[in-house]
Fold these 4 entries.
Entry 1:
Amino acid sequence: MDNGPEGNHIDRVSGDEPLLSARVHRPSDLVRLLAGVLGIICVLAIAAFAHGTASGLEEDISKGTGQTPDVFIKLAGLISSIAVLILPVAFAIERLVKRDGLRIADGVLAAVLAHGVALATDLWVSDSAPATIREALTQATASGELTDPVHGYLAPVIAYMTAVGMARRPRWRVALWAVLLLNSFAVLVGRQTTPFSIIVTVLIGWTVAYGTLYAVGSPNVRPTGQTLLAGLRHVGFRPVTAMRAEDVPDSAEQGDRGRRYLVTLEDGPPLDVTVVDREQQAQGFFYRVWRQVTLRGITQRRSIQSLRQALEQEALLAYAAIAAGANAPKLIATSELGPDAVMLVYQHLGGRSLDSLPDEEITDELLRGAWRQVKALQSRRIAHRRLVGDAILVDRSGRVILTDLRGGEIAAGDVVLRMDVAQLLTTLGLRAGAERAVAAAVEVLGPDAVADSLPLLQPIALSRSTRATLRRLARERSQREREAVIEASHAAKAERGADEPVPSAGRKDVRAEKKAEKDAIEEALEQAREEDLLSQIRHQVLLIRPQALVEPARLERIRPRTLVSIIAGAFVAYFLISTLMANDVSDAIATADWRWAAVAVLFSVLSYPAAAMSLLGFVPEKVPFWRTVGAQVAGSFVKLVAPAAIGGVALNTRFLQRAGVRPGLAVASVGASQLFGLASHISLLMVFGYVTGTQHTPTLSPSRTVIAGLLTAAVLALVVTAVPFLRRFVVTRVRSLFAGVVPRMLDVLQRPQKLVTGIGGMLLLTAAFVMCLDASVRAFDSDVQLSYATIAVVFLTANALGSAVPTPGGVGAVEGALIAALTLAGLGGGVATSAVLLYRLLTFWLPVLPGWLFFNHLTRKGQL
């Protein structure tokens, strides 16, 4: 080896990264873009809905600055106007001198785009925006003209300065803010703009800048191997070569956890060096944000974390793991590699990852070694958070070493520690099988600790790579099952013998042959069916601890259904707020007849005994009536947290079971009630729709609306019947919902009194809601000309739509449908909105509190 001067060695880099892309798209720029768009929307919303606040703010500023000398205002305006133009030019000259012309090009592009967005906003505000927004963003001049809503020169300057990165340089940042504040002060005091206009201008420039940076990409500042060697020399090492870990035989896969190098020194053992830059740190940003939003009770690594914070976290976990007695890489040194990267220097360990080991080398002692490392970490309440195959290293002596501690957690809670156990059970089970993985865990951790992890043994608690592997295995199992069914079907046909059907064969023989083929297929499917890995692990643990709790823990904070509810609620809130601000709604509320509102309250209360009758009419067993009424009131609370069609079924089924009805019969009774309710709903809708269409005509000819509705229903039925996927979906849902309904209906038909009670309760329930809606309408328009048939059609249509959408109580869909239908029926927009708000207040929102009280009372009494 050449023993010349040190400088002859630090440039030898083997296996360095390929040519890096000149530009990268940073998720942080996208986040700032979205934040800017949201900020603009919020400012415009405040300007539109809080007009009094905007006007008051302008008046306060005008009073506070009214005594400012005119000379000072003009001087400030002159200086700031000149500085706003000179400052960007000065920064551009500095960057060009330092050969950073790409940033200047980015800034110019952002400035051009910002100017275009500013002009478009000016046109929108002048021509199409609501009057309140126009008043908030413009100011009348002495000549009577309006000022520009967005400053055509300030927005491009802000976009340029942001895109070129002036805000990241302290001296330039101070100058930038001084000029912006001075300019804003001058135009505000001079009554050339408004506060909201200044805010919108700044947000447009800022947003367009980050949108430009994300679209075209930012200059790539990732450090190369040459930078790494220079950084190692800076902290006292004498490196000779650096080789990317991906090119080192038997090295672990590194994924997105930083670039890793094997560095050889002039003297001493080699080093493992991890380099983390901003680009790698941003990988997985949106996934981490989604996990933070959706998972409850589980802390996650901060989604936006500085490089120094990432360095300190990994260093802390490395020292803590070694102090706990676990085998982990020993951290020797840390250092920054410029402003955009850091490095962590570890002792070289060597070895292979668990994923790269052949099956014959995964011994029981190796499995126990992995569990011993986890036990050592958990003795000091340290969570690894990523116990997958490439984070478990096995050296040449067979010693297990835990790597990739960067995402771990100090002082972890019980849930997170149990998640580590569940994750390692799955990781080892994928390589060695469920039985061996559980046996090694029980031997090291004990049966209780392993059993406690069962509620966390669910896909959402596992790592992303593990979930992907489980999904792949599930697809392979399904493929094997399909192949087994096809093979069994072919074998059954071959066994029948003849290719042509025998003419003398009777219908019974054909049915017998088909039944034999079906039995053969079912037997083959049963033999080919395999348990998934998680079920196998649960089974193995239950063999040791039969009393272990296996019900999955609730980890999700937000489910897709909840997200749909939030979005629907936001749209409804915007629609209702914008409608309520109209003068006709205010006038309707001011002139309301609250006696009709009292009548609406009575009909709303009547709906609960009617609902109890509609349920008890399909329950041959004796169930207390008033207790059933209480259960229906409790359903008002359940509707708030679950779709009405689902929450009501579950609550009534549970209530009947607690009342002594056998589970199967309880489900059948509720199913029969639902089936009759559906038939009643459709029948009433057709009848009232027919009456509505004929009440203004001399002949009883059906209306076009009814005919169109029937044709639409027929077309939908044909589509569902023709498409196999939809047909199977509908048949499966209907079969599961109404299983056992027919025998239950036969029991009810033998008791005409029960049948009359059930059908009468359904009709009374519909009548109560229709009369409640009618009274709500009359509360705001006592001379309304809408017939009861029209009100009934409006209610039945909106109720069907509310049951179809996956929002609690049909929030959003019911209100929108009711308002639209009443408006189409001829009711004024203000009256329709006010009536619907009162109706929903009485039938959905106000009953929530008594529903919660009844729900808790019945639960404590063991009746729910």
Note: Residues 1-11, 247-256, 695-707 have pLDDT under 50 and may be disordered.
Entry 2:
Amino acid sequence: MHGRPDPLDPLSRERNHLAASRSALRAMREDAEALDIRDVTANWVNAAVLQSQIDERIKSLADLSHTPLFFGRLDYLHAPGADQAEGAEGEQFYIGRRHVHDADGDPMVIDWRAPVSQPFYRASKKAPMDIALRRRFGYTGGDLTAYEDEHLSDADEAERTSKLLQQEIERPRVGPMRDIVATIQPEQDEIVRSGLGGSVCVQGGPGTGKTAVGLHRVAYLLYAHRERLARTGTLVIGPNKSFLHYIEQVLPALGELEVKQATVDDLVAHVEVRGTDDAAAAVVKGDARMAAVLRKALRSHVTMPVESVVVVRGSRRWRVPAYELEEIVGELLARDIRYGAARDALPQRIAHAVLVQMERAGEAPDDRVQDAVARNSAVKAAVKAVWPPVDPAKLVLRLLSDPEFLAVHAEGILDEDEQKLILWSKPVRGVKAAKWSAADAVLIDEANDLVARTHSLGHVVLDEAQDLSPMQYRAVGRRCTTGSATVLGDLAQGTTPWATRSWEQALAHLGKGDAVVEELTAGFRVPREVIAYASRLLPSIAPGLAEVKSVRESAGSLVVRQVADLDAASLEACVESLRHEGSIGLIAADARVPALAKALEAAGMTYLSPGEETTPDTRLTLVPASLAKGLEYDYVVLDEPAAVVDGEPDERTGLRRLYVALTRAVSGLTVVHSAGLPEQLAP
């Protein structure tokens, strides 16, 4: 990158570097494809494992035609520290989505997660971080078409907003969610690069990039702690399948293919969910007090022994008296270990008591004798009587269908009215016949964990976390007891009757009370006019929460129309929006969706369902308000706000649902209504 002056203009030189980098990446992929493992594997198992790793490596080296290999360049004043990278004074580093090296092993593109790349996101005039020049690149359809320079060491150059950065943020959206790796802001980068050991909670209003920050944090942690997380695993939890489908391409675009994705319902799918609860019952079932009810009900199966255990070995009989058995059971109960673990320990404890007697009698038993005694039929019978096995689903079934059993174990925890709310009205024949609800499945998951410890992952990302019940938080927390979590959400967008009121409470239920809470208030996605309009709802739905301030230079468009024919007006607004480039979302109250679908079909307008990928030919998505959370569209047509509010069980939840719907637009919002608007939206 140094030597004789280059006769090419800077843009041509950068295009040449892009072409050379693509060639180098292709060579890296060809090298991986050409690897011959026949002589280095001892058996077919090793060969299969190694081949799988090579296949993943080949996939990660894919050159995506519309995904630029690099998006920035850093010119250092001095050689970076030895812990960052080697390089001559003044060396240039191209910053991209993955590392690319040439045939000699010299870097052509540096991974955005490497320490040497950090100043691209953090450096400023006040703190230049030893950077002379930061260059951003602009692309059109994968072709490098522009660049923009900041001379951070030049005191005379004024600090200004990056036009390329603005263009990238405002670029029309077609297809799934994109990564934001080229536009990460300093406050976002701090969260992305925070360590694996601690948990982080990000409170972020619409358009602040919290979802993208969480996904990029996963990518960063996998880069910085790859071996550890390869062993322990990572998981991204989203609110629904549509949302997961929308975000699923972000991590592969960053070269990360191994992160699993799931909803909370997926995590607790121990039974088939075929039923629903009304809001009041769901609130009680989701209350953290249910954990205490379940624990009490489970431990009630343990009964204190009343008879001795007699173990016959050969001609000898060994008696463990009832009082000694009672001491053993009491000690296991006091230790408060998992029900199943204690049950497994009980025969060994009884066997140990027999071995003590054998040793006193002059025998010298070893571990094999203890194991044999533990398997003795008399010991097994005693364990079954004292500490019987319990099926978690059957335990929950009994609690929800047996009023007396529930009353005994909910005494002092749930009042009588709460008990009546969660009891099933009709008796159920068995676990398979029961019409379990989503909240019931969470209770079964809790009971499962009381019996046997849930496997813990290394890191869990929980998005749209504000909508979880305390029991759902506990279910997620069980998946990262020995790992850490990134919790993402917005208290103003809580749209369930049990939505959390404070992150402090939520994190306590999650078991991460020591998590650091960060607040993102700079909005990059929602236009200024639109976020200001939606923020009129904040005093009613989340008093005290900071209003998002849009950093967008373009104000965006906002149109509010009162009409007579709602269906026709909403379709007309969609036609107008389709004249612009990008994706269109028609968002409506769930009850209005069938009528709008019929109107669209009658007009010959093709449309998609949430999560389905937009194409240049089909850019309109019909979105029930209940599924709008986390999604974004270039232009949004919002049909009848009052119907969105009325579709929820209470006004606060309805207004929160409306706040979500109002804040899905990237470039423009058209509100169409025939009924009056909610009073909070009045100027």
Note: The chain has a mean pLDDT of 88.
Entry 3:
Amino acid sequence: MELLVHGVGGTTPQEMLGDPRVQRITGDDTAACYRRTDDADAEQRPDDYRTEPVREAYCWSNLTSGNGARALWLVLLPFMVANLAHWMRPAAPPDHRGQRIYDLLVRLLALTLTVLLAAAACEVALDLSAWQCAGTPVCVTGKSWLGFLNPAGGGWWSTPGRRLVLASLLPLLVVGFLWWLSHRTWSAYESASPPPRRPGASRDTPAHERTALGLDGFWYGRRLVARLRAAHTAAGVLTIAAALLVASLRADSRAGATALTAVGRTLTGLVLLLAAGTLVIVWRTARSEAARDEETDRLAVRALPYAALAVLALTAGYAAWARPAARSHGPLPGVAAFGGIAVCQSVLVLALVVTAWFLQRAARDETRTALRGMGGPAVALLSCAVAGVLSGGVAQRFADWIDGPATPGQDHAPIPGPPVVLSWQASVLPALLVVVAAVVVLAGVRVLAVRKRVARDVPGLYDPRERPDVLRTERIAGTIARAGLTDAAPVLVAAIAAVTLVLGAGAVAGAWLTDRAPGRATEGAAPFVHAAAEAAESLGSWLMGAGVILLLTMGRRAYRDHSARRTIGILWDVGTFWPRAAHPFAPPCYAERAVPDLTWRMATWTEQYDGRLVISGHSQGSVLAAAAVWQLDLVTRSRVALLTYGSPLERLYGRWFPAFFGPPALTGLHREMDDWRNLWRFTDPIGGPILLSCEDGRAVDEGPLRDPLAFGRTLQNPLPAQILGHGDYQADPVFDRVRAELLARLGPGIPAQRTNCTGSQASSGRSSA
């Protein structure tokens, strides 16, 4: 059998099988295997398939695509990026002490993102709406939806504490929605079980002798996500309770209410106790990949969210207690917590840098690892930056809208506006964009230089009798140069991460030292400095809001436009390929459904029919195919050959996730299966070589393939051949030849395992070329 797995953007089974009449063999509307209608009963007619295999297509596009509402998942982008940092750790030995420290730091960083989201929702609902605007007659005028909260009206809800209690429903709904979404996707994606074990197969060997992706529990994160979901839900609820407590305690201390102060301090103790319990659960919730995690959740874990809700209810009753002398003036007490969250995140990122450095020192043969093992800390820092932009953008834009024509924070404005630290963070955003623009310009210059250099060699790839065409040569060379930008991504990530760390630290320091927005803090400075600060503050505020809108627009377009899906989808599909190990509110991992599907299909089919199988994967489908082969036992794996094309296995996954797709892991996969061939092109911006070879003379890589297939117009090609880039590898004659070689090798006997397969950085790879 030949099992086809499509890549990013999805392909219909009719297109994959080249037949309009197809039939579902196994699966459901989300993911399924299809055959041509004529091949549906192939196992009953084995004589008809002795020269050509049974072709079957696995379609998984519905796992990542859907209606436009899925664009809202892009709001969860910071959580997804933080989850990526967990998997980017250097390839140190599994028993290295730094492995557990690294994972713990990422989980704690992910917890701060949940607290930041809940705090941002409290900022909009409690501070800007219920505390500042509803308590200011000038601001509340003309806003009917806030009229019943106006202190001048003397209504029951007009006191500050009751206004805050009513407004706290909004952040509570946000946390509840995230819990519901995580629970819903958890039931659909993360409950697929691995195939049954075969006695004496590799699944019975010790876990330390198998690569991580081959462990039984790697694609089964049901219990872990449930525990993290309980902890993060409790953290969000406790953040809301803390916001209510700080404001009410401040009012009681000023009024001298001894009894109410005692109640508030008791509730504060309960909040701190539950917060400590949340930290303990996050501390102890590490992945168990050697076997399926079937441990029943303890009562403390299941009860934690309900205990947090109970404390929130008690706190709401305490905050709603009548306080006739209470008034809301200035910002809501406790908004300085935004600066504290930023400092905490910075400390965790720096600790992650130190841990990653020790892990990289202990790693083996990691010459192509992105950012020398610092990819995880850099991505973790970017997740904090994206979360800050989203939270700050929503708060800034909401403050501008609710304040009318005035500018929040200025002397003539009715309300103080968002916390000062958010204004400072917005002010440094233009400087960060200048750095990004400079890197983009340098990338453009690099493309021009590479295009000029490559253009000299392009004509030599084709028939020398063809007439030279300068425009055609430049177009081909430009495509190759632009495709090479993927290898320069670490430079962009490093530059953004470094500048973000410096500017973020400066923003927090400026906010704490001046306690005023940048425009007001520079009023006594030189006119140029003051004008620049005001311009940066205003421009950064708009850029933050525009970033939120742009993110949602791009996401909606990506799920409706197939061309945009192929462009944007690769980054999203790389992020959602990995299980939710650090943040339970991240978008679901489609591989926890797709990989068990493929593993079950290969294992059961080869065992039932004593069959041989070629699994053929394009782009992201090649990653799913390799992950599924890793899950097979050695007996089944020796009956399987792998054909990949346009594959990011080494170029993206091997460089950014070396602990799981580094040279040792890929070498082991090559050694234990029947054969593996990989096709790639210089014009492909995603796929690349695997960089492996064996002593028997056969290399995994076949390429670089010539693209386009013909330089100019010929008798055989009267029209200009298209530059294929990442798509349509089947159009190349080399594809049919390599496919035929793999099928010919799969004879009736079980092939012997090959040995002495090594990673080769000097093979015909993109780096050496």
Note: The CA atoms of residues 457 and 477 lie 9 Å apart.
Entry 4:
Amino acid sequence: MSDEPQLIGGGPAGTGGRPGAGDGDHDTPHRADGLPAGKPAKGRKNRPQRTGWRRLLPTWRMVLGGLLLIVLLVAGGLVTGYLLVDIPPANKAAIAQSNVFLYSDGSQLAREGKVNRESVQLSQVPKRTQHAVLAAEDRDFYSESAINPEAMVRAAWNTVTGKGKQSGSTITQQYVKNYYLDQEQTVTRKVKEFFIAIKLDREVSKDKILEGYLNTSYFGRNAYGIQAAAQAYYGKDIGELDTAQSAYLATLLNAPSAYDIVAHPQNKGRAVARWNYVLDGMVKKGWLDRAERQKMTFPTPSDAKVASGMSGQRGYLVEAVEDYLTSNGIIDEQTLARGGYRITTTIDQKKQDAFTEAVRDRLMSKLSPDRKVDTYVRAGGASIDPKTGKVVALYGGIDYTKQFVNNATRRDYQVGSTFKPFVFTSAVRYGSTTQDGQTITADTLYNGDNKREVVGSGGPTGYAPANEDDVDYGDIDVTTATDNSVNSVYAQMAEDVGPARVKETAIDLGVPKNTPDLHASPSIALGPATASVLDMTEAYATLANHGKHGNYSLVAKVTKDGAQIKLPDREERQAVPRGAADATTSILQSVVDGGTGTAAQAAERPAAGKTGTAEEDKAAWFAGYTPDLATVVAVMGQDSNTGVQKSLYGATGLERINGGGYPAEIWAQYTAGALDGRPPADFDLRLEDGADSPDDSQNNPQPPDSPPTVPTTPPTDAPQDPSPPTTPTDNPPDLPTSDPTADPPTDLPTGGPSTEPGPGDPDGDPGDPGGDPGGPGGPVNG
């Protein structure tokens, strides 16, 4: 063997190697194709090595492979799910169970629950009604598949981005949820719904699915199915409904209880908007002639037929509790309606009975069938333990079977001057000053002249509210202005503080931010906002709790089949500084001790409160609290037949009804009864400089040249002119009373006609001369 190195593909030089190969080639290794190692073959290039951060990125082959794997897994999952999930038998929704409602001590309050259902064939449902439902819930039902991915993605996006919780379900999916499954918001339930809907769509006709949907959907008023709904809302069989009525029933599918405008008249605007949406959808799909649609008017439903077991206060309490559970997302409406829940409320039976008795004794016993205005009288009340936030009593009306609307929770009456304390709280909270730089305290002087124009930082605002009975007070301090509910002072104070800050403070105290007519303008001080009695009680409970706020609670415990349902935790926070809340309590004690709320002294406990009267005497309020209990009472006027708000001038034989009269008297009797056996407690106030205690301020004399506190005009037993008196007297007022023979209470509605209507007040209502730029218009009396 030669000792020379061998080359791939050849032997030693001269014995098979490349002819003429030099010595330099002997050291170069070659590949099998004869080319030197490391040299690319012809037509091929070396791939550059991935270096640095590029080494971390997947290649396109990896990405493509991953996507294919995902597609295979999803497809396999869909096929597996479709094969494994069968169409189950109908759920137990049709088997009615009762919901049991208990007082806080465990005794039974009410039992509710038999499902009102009457199934019908699709052929019995007029096409106009079918089309209305489709226009409301699924306009492409007959042409689309059982699942609409685009709608599901859109609904999820709208929910995530804060545009409201929405459903992307088709009618088929909704039917599956109603008939085969339950209402639980779980992934497992949604997966089952997905596959059952697909399978059902392949095996059952669209007509049968629509028929099932119409018979299983919940419409409110305990009515399941379109036939039961037609009877519940219009007292008709389904075949007798016209198009407008059909569209209203279709509207209810979106939010059954919320769109029942008899139970919640404040929601009529939303219900009408949804009703218009349904009709416009029918026109768009060619199911309704445009000219016919233009002629339609909203078909107000009839009053609900209430079971006798819901008589008295029971129905109001059950309705309020159910609204609390559904609005807080604890149980959805359809699931709750199916029954089986045992619900322990926060309602104290002793306090509830005391409230009912107080309203009967102080107000209802004074009504006469011979006075038409007495038929308009309504009352509402709520009471909260400020330390716990528990609603311990709720007065909704004379009887749930006679007056269906809950006067404690409705949001359609002006709160009047019960809003003024929020202005002062805001002033102290922000350390606000007057236009001349004086810090606003209980002792700060304001000009209280009637129709004095509000002045802002840029000069006169054009807003000049009238005082009650057009009284000129001259220069008075804030405590006296609060005692007498002086509109001109508080409108100016709202401007000094900043209306936006006043609104923010009210919301922080507990007034819902979506309250109608809660506008940031100087008129906010006079209370054009239409918060509910319960809303105002929550806000006053925050003041009573030294500025600490926690949402109210109506439910202490919920169980079903022995399992306890989780309730939301009560989160308490310092909504406003304690000094601001306590300063407000101090001046509100003065209102009870010597102002318009002296009737509340009958509770025989240290108390703070504020009277209020709505525009045209349509509502009168007293909002007050002791250290142990915050309670608000309102007396309202409403025509039972038309639902229109009515003035209370002349009710019970008095010239006018105001917050210092019946509402304060009811408050006092209820508070005394509710706290019977508990020793009176004093307010523990921490006052800042300039905030006097009530003992120092309650007898604060007026300037020598100022007029008397609030003049009155003696009433007579004869029918009264509906317009309020405008001529003050020189005599100081007596205590507010409900006795027709006594002098009228001191919290009187605004007098003096406006010379020109203000914005939003085309009739030029008395008390809003010149209007309020930027405000809702319409005065609110003190």
Note: The CA atoms of residues 88 and 646 lie 55 Å apart.
